[in-house]
Amino acid sequence: MPRGIYQRKPCLERTKRKIGLANKGHPVLVETRAKIREKLKGRSLPMWWKNKISQGLKGRPVSSATRKKIAESLMGEKSYLWKGGILIKNQKVRRGIEYRLWREAVFARDNWTCQKCRVRKERNLVAHHIQNFAQYIELRTSIENGITFCNECHVKFHKKYGNKNNTKAEIEKFLNY
Asked: From the centroid of its chain, how far is CA 132?
């Protein structure tokens, strides 16, 4: 008979269970683990197999101790977002009292009214910089450099003109449209 043309018959579920029960409690030798690890070195699993593992792990409850370990492993210097412990200057400015006073002054000047839709609101207002916050450092807290938008109009503006390098002309065009 030619070799290699016959396929192995699939195991029945009860046979798989028997094999699993027979192997339970028998630890794999350290040498055997090392051989397996060496054989698999440099290989990666196919995508379909990774997806199968992912689907199997989804919805699995994770203990609070495990969640705590994961959180601690990603804190501080171990985090991929770590920037040497330096707070970004822009964030520092936006959290400062001078910036808060600027926002309040812009809202008060515009009578707590969105300059696009002309609806007076006391919530969901945004003080938008006319000249870019990042480019014009000296104008960050200048009241003339601010305009009041409601949250919806502010989102519409940035969807239309993007988040960077906005100009005064774009704001005028947006207000007149």
From this structure: 25
Q: Tens of pLDDT along 27-77? A: 878 898 899 889 989 888 899 999 999 999 999 999 999 999 999 999 888
Q: Which amino acid is at 75?
A: M
Phi-psi sector, 118: left (phi>0), alpha (psi -120 to 50), beta: left
> In which residue are the tokens 């519409």 written?
156
In angstroms, the CA 117 to CA 152 distance is 10
Question: Residue 87 carries which side chain, given as an amino acid letter?
Answer: L
Q: CA 6 to CA 151: how far, in whole Å?
A: 68
Task: Tokens 């698999």: give the residue.
Answer: 40
Pairing of strands 146-150, 125-129: antiparallel
Q: Where are any strands of DSSP class E within the chain?
A: 125-129, 146-150
